[in-house]
Amino acid sequence: MCPAQKISSALCALLLAGCLSCAAQPFLGLYNSTKGFGVNAIRSVPGQNEFDNYTLYADIYGLPLGQSAAPGGFFSYTRDYIFRSIEIDEIVFDFYAGAGVSAGYVRDREAEKMGGVFALCGDVGVRVDFSRLISVALSFRTDLGLYISKEPASAAILFSLYKNGLIRTLHPQISILFRL
Fold first, then answer.
1. DSSP state of 94
2. Which residues lie closer than 8 Å to 13 by C-beta, 6 or more apart?
3. For residues 175 and 30, is the Cβ–Cβ distance under 8 A?
4. Are the beta carbons of 104 and 149 closer than 8 angstroms?
């Protein structure tokens, strides 16, 4: 098992353990975006207007155009706060925003090779709960962080701003979640 597979397996286990802990209402589902695809988990405590949002996905930047040979891996965690909730015929619309952290091994714009990302992230969106069993979330997230890579010629370590985290802010993220 290569190091990237070990890291992604550990992150999946951490995602599930964090989601299923405490007296929370866990949701688990599919994440899809022009950024990539993966899994999304939400852990909320009844009676509170906040929830933990975990996302693990395969970052496909450069893959469709042949600029990358393999997808990268990306994990984010945000603590989201519901600032407005509207109920219409047993369908609940929760409007939320929050902040958190993200990390990954991805390819950034203008980078020749894959590198590590460590960032602070912000999330804003709406989650639609259908009878509290199925949720669909539409959100937008920005990642402001550091991109670390090696220069191929000299093996020097390079630090730069993670450009894709800012440029892909307006790429919509859609999750379909099921209550466990």
1. E
2. none
3. yes
4. no
Cβ 61 vs Cβ 70: under 8 Å:
no
Task: For residue 21, list its beta bridge partners.
Answer: none
Amino acid at 32: N
Between strands 72-88 and 91-106, the pairing is antiparallel
Structure tokens at 133: 């069993």
pLDDT digits (tens, 9 = 90+) for 108-121: 887 778 899 999 99
Give the H/E segment covering residue 160.
strand 157-161
Task: Specify the DSSP element, H or E, that contains 144.
Answer: strand 134-150
Closest CA to 93 of 49, 128, 47: 128
The Cα-based distances of 7 to 4, 56, 129 in angstroms read 5, 11, 32
The pTM score is 0.83
